[in-house]
Design brief:
Layout: H1 2-21, H2 28-32, H3 36-92, H4 96-117, H5 121-126, H6 128-142, H7 150-177, E1 183-185, H8 192-197, H9 208-214, E2 230-232, E3 240-242, H10 249-254, H11 265-271, E4 287-289
Antiparallel strand pairs: 1-2, 3-4
Length: 295
């Protein structure tokens, strides 16, 4: 008898806590194998488990009702805000189609940048002009009235960062690999110093005069540069020079792309004696040889 009580006590000590804290349901056979006392304890544990589940269900239902109520209130607030936004759009003359068009454009730029960001350096440089056209189109779109709407700001900020990163990569490639453009299409707002300052041009805004002198047939003055113009970008040192109005041998010699100092003008004179009778008298449209051996 004492042995049986000891077994029951052991079951109560070890099995019952399991029922209470991580409840394990017994099969029919397992239940039949229990003693009367064990069955009573098991049934009591079942009742407590049921009560706990019912309380949890009640709490969950209450929370669900509260969440549904809160959700309804939030929906009403959102509806009110949307109504105010639509009213503001009407005042600004913005239609739903306008918003759809902007969303589509933003997605288009994202898709395009995904392609550019996966390109190798060689492919980036080979398509540099196409990227400039894409960026110009992007600049036009992002400058529209719709671009200032708050709902688009995160997208514009992200796209600005990504466009800059690709543009910087192209500039870096041009500088480090020695790739250069022999022609350049002027972008909106650019001046000769800005163009000369691009890493893939000269990386030095002070060299704008080189571009100007190479394009004097289409640029009457340095300030005459216009968006869309195609400019020649001189590479290397010239071996010939076409004289323009107001130039003389000293002035030509001191250009950085010629000799960088006026004192070397005799080199030009000696190489072109067949055209220059008097070194103080040269004329527009004469074409002189520019020696490169300094002899």
């Amino acid at each position: 008898m004492n042995k049986k009580l000891l077994i029951i006590a052991t079951l109560i000590m070890f099995v019952l806590p399991v029922f209470l804290f991580s409840f394990t349901y017994l099969s029919d056979q397992e239940y039949k194998n229990l003693s009367s006392a064990e069955k009573q304890e098991y049934l009591k544990a079942l009742d407590e488990e049921m009560a706990s589940l019912q309380q949890r269900k009640s709490d969950a239902n209450a929370q669900t009702e509260q969440l549904q109520s809160d959700n309804g209130a939030l929906k009403e607030q959102i509806s009110g805000v949307n109504s105010e936004i639509l009213a503001l759009y009407d005042v600004l003359g913005i239609s739903e189609q306008d918003l759809t068009d902007i969303h589509n454009k933003i997605q288009y730029y994202k898709d395009q940048l995904n392609n550019w960001e996966r390109m190798s350096d060689d492919d980036l440089w080979a398509n540099a002009k196409a990227f400039k056209e894409l960026r110009e189109d992007y600049n036009v779109t992002s400058s529209q009235t719709l671009a200032v709407l708050p709902e688009f700001q995160k997208d514009w900020n992200d796209l600005n960062r990504r466009f800059k990163a690709v543009g910087d990569a192209i500039d870096r490639i041009g500088k480090t690999k020695g790739y250069y453009e022999d022609n350049y299409t002027v972008q909106k707002g650019e001046t000769l110093p800005i163009i000369a300052g691009h890493d893939f041009i000269y990386g030095d805004s002070s060299k704008w005069g080189i571009i100007f002198r190479a394009n004097r047939d289409k640029l009457p003055s340095p300030n005459a540069v216009k968006e869309g113009q195609n400019l020649k970008i001189p590479r290397g040192l010239p071996t010939s020079w076409k004289v323009f109005r107001g130039e003389y041998l000293w002035k030509i010699s001191q250009y950085p792309e010629v000799y960088g100092t006026g004192t070397k003008w005799p080199l030009i004179y000696r190489a072109n004696k067949d055209q220059i009778k008097d070194p103080n008298l040269i004329y527009p449209n004469q074409v002189f040889t520019i020696p490169r051996d300094d002899k």
